[in-house]
Amino acid sequence: MPITVLFEDNHVLAVVKPPGILSQEDDTGDADMLTLLKQDLKQRHNKPGNVFLGLVHRLDRMVGGAMVFAKTSKAASRLSESVRNRQFGKTYVCVVQGTPAKPQARLTHYILKDSKQNQVTVYNKPVAEAKEAVLEYEVTAVTGRYSLVAVKLHTGRPHQIRAQLAHIGCPLVGDLKYGAKPTGGISEIALWSTSISTPHPVSKEWMVFRSIPSGSAAWSWWSYEQLEVASSMLSNG
User: Fold this and answer.
1) pTM of the prediction?
2) What total of structural domains would you count in the chain?
3) What domain range is 104 assigned to?
4) Which of 24, 64, 65, 202 shows the greatest Cβ crowding within 10 Å of its Cβ?
5) Looking at the domain assignment, is residue 146 inside a domain?
């Protein structure tokens, strides 16, 4: 499948992940980005033997947008350290049902994952084994019963954006798992990784990789200019 490359050097590979593709191989045996990109690198660079590619972060299967991989073990270690130190900025744009009560806010909740159900529960106060989940959001446009919302993650919990926005009464369009009402013909979850910012693992130069969602599914309800504005909100650089 065609893969859009946002940036590539000897250490870092930034691409656009299409919705519906796994980040990493699982028991289903379905296509995943890590395997696809290793095959692509092997062909494009005519590499013999196995190709190294490190998974630095994940996107949910149904989420598309900017994603960063490490091409060397040193880069993988340093980028993973940036994630742990919260120097790895991630912003998203989503379409939600309804409009949040506040046009912009910082949400702090506690998320407990049920691995068997692959679903999380959100709590307002700490509970046993739940992990703190923090994000910022800003409503950038509203049309009828739907809102275009920019989101900046401060923690990287499973299904965090989906679950936290649903918890405040604004589930993502297409996200039936977290309470969205069916929207005619749209099965794709309206969530897109719009920017990733991080120091380069070797040069330490600040890098920003951007991706704007395509005008299909719920994204078609907004103009390119509206999507561009939303995609640039809350990012670091």
Assistant:
1) 0.93
2) 1
3) 4-232
4) 65
5) yes
The single-letter code of the amino acid at 48 is P
Q: What are the pLDDT digits (tens) for 175-224? A: 999 999 998 878 889 999 999 999 999 999 999 999 999 878 899 999 99
The DSSP H or E segment spanning 146 is: strand 146-153
Q: How far apart are CA 173 and CA 96, in angstroms?
A: 5
Q: What is the DSSP string of 12-31?
A: EEEEEEPTT-BSS--TT---
Show contacts of 107-116: CB within 8 Å, 24+ apart: 107/133, 107/134, 107/135, 107/136, 107/137, 107/164, 107/168, 108/132, 108/133, 108/134, 109/133, 109/163, 109/164, 109/167, 111/157, 111/158, 111/159, 111/160, 111/163, 111/164, 113/157, 113/158, 113/159
- Asked, for residue 69, whether it belongs to a domain, the answer is yes
